[in-house]
Amino acid sequence: MKLDVPDSRKLNHKKVFITTGMAMLILIVVVIVVIYYSSEEFRNFMDKYILRKDVTEENVPMIEIDYESNTNVIPYGKYICILAENTLFEYNSSGRKEKEVKIEVNTPVYDVEDKYLVIGEKNNQKLYLITGDHIVWEKNIEGNLNKVTVNKNGYVSAIISGTTYKSVIVTYDEKGNELFKSYLSNAIAVDACISPNNENLAYAEVNTSGTAIQSNIKVISMEEAKEKNTEPKYTYNADQSNLIIKIRYQDKNKLICMYEDSIHVMQNEQDTEILKLDEDEKKVTFADIELTDSVFRTIEQSVGLFQANTMIEIKNVNNEKENVYNAQETVKSIVSAENIIAVNFGTEVEFINTNGWLVKRYTSTQSVRNIVICDGVAGIIYRDKIELISL
What is the model's pTM? Predict the structure, then answer.
């Protein structure tokens, strides 16, 4: 009986053919990636026709706004929420209503971090901490609520006016226990936030009692404050007339401070300027610090009598790496959250990530009114509807 023994030469030829094919495939992929990164024209072609990053109003899910009372759209986790008729209605990325929470709020001040939403009635007394579809705690505060923030652990800071002090900052733990109050007699609190590790409360204040505006950043130890020592462990006095706008704790407990003319990072009692917002021969139109680990600014560049492009510079606060995204239009408005920046050009919105790459491009036949960004979904807001874009 004769056995069929494979020809070793044929096997070798087959191996060579497979190896060559794999090498060619890898080479083609590498070439495409290199061209995609280096050629804007090729990248736009790939984004539109191959990667299908372009969407229009005809092919996205929608939430109808048909409530009779005043409505507010709030991004919360993976939900787009509508606050109307003293109820918070939570919709998923498909536009289906999943949950609702009854709260006594009509004109909200709110903040979202991770699974927590803190929300209250602006210039009034009601304050709530919400997770999912239930209220963790609610308060009737003394004074008028101006601003609230929450960290990822549910710790809340609330700025209050309308008392004998110019501002009072109240801090609560995740169960609603009041930890301490900070009283400001000579300055107005602009912003406050609690570090992700619950160690520090930072607040920004503005003193207008002198001949020039004085902005200060103060950091209080939460542990010492609970022991009745609310004196700041660190104070940074900005240059006179340099107005503080907002502060935010980002990744690795870094405190990001946004002024009228610059953005700074504070860590280990060191203040470092990382981005200028007022620079000769550069028209900075927008900037923000609401991302997870980055900050950005937009620079408008004239290319004709009635035409301008926009360059978006994104800087990582941890490694100071800078990424740039070039848009061929003038920006009307801009919104950012997590690692997404939504750039509104009027009837078109481009969603880019902090690496400077396009995630989605949305086109409409009418002007976009507003935009909210959630976990994996964005809402394009019109008067009577919200269109949902998967990110």
Answer: 0.88
What is the pLDDT, as a whole number, of residue 1?
47
Divide the 391 residues of the chain into consecutive groups of 10 and give the mean pLDDT of each group: 54 63 69 61 65 82 87 95 94 94 95 97 97 95 96 98 96 96 95 96 92 92 87 90 94 94 92 93 95 96 83 95 93 96 96 95 93 96 94 92
Q: What is the pLDDT of residue 211?
A: 78
By the 8 A CB rule, do 180 and 221 touch?
no
Those residues whose C-beta lies under 8 Å from the C-beta of residue 120, and which sit 6 or more positions away, are 105, 108, 109, 110, 126, 127, 128, 141, 145, 148, 158
Confidence (pLDDT) at 174: 97
Sign of the CA dihedral running 48, 50, 55, 56: positive
pLDDT at 14: 62
Domain boundaries, the chain: 14-50, 56-66+281-391, 103-278
E-only strand ranges, 36-113: 54-56, 62-64, 72-76, 79-84, 87-91, 97-102, 108-113
C-alpha–C-alpha distance, residues 368 and 343, integer Å = 11
CA dihedral defined by 202, 208, 212, 214, rounded to 10 degrees? -10
What six digits make up the tokens of 300? 């408008």
Q: What is the pLDDT of residue 153?
A: 97
| CA separation for the pair 372, 290 (Å, rounded) | 13
In contact, 351 and 342? CB cutoff 8 Å: yes
| Topology classification of domain 103-278 | Neuraminidase (2.120.10)
CA geometry: angle at 354 spanning 348 and 357, to 5°? 55
Which residue do the tokens 């200028």 mark? Answer: 276
Task: Please tell me the predicted confidence (pLDDT) of residue 30.
Answer: 64
Phi/psi class of residue 354: alpha, beta or left (left: φ > 0; alpha: ψ in -120 to 50)?
A: alpha
How far apart CA 281 and CA 223 sit, in angstroms, is 47
Q: Which residue has the tokens 């394009």?
A: 380
- Which of 280, 273, 243, 272 minimizes the C-alpha distance to 260? 243
Q: What is the CATH number of domain 56-66+281-391?
A: 2.40.10.360
Cβ count within 10 A of residue 342 = 26
Structure tokens that stand for 73 in this block? 């759209």
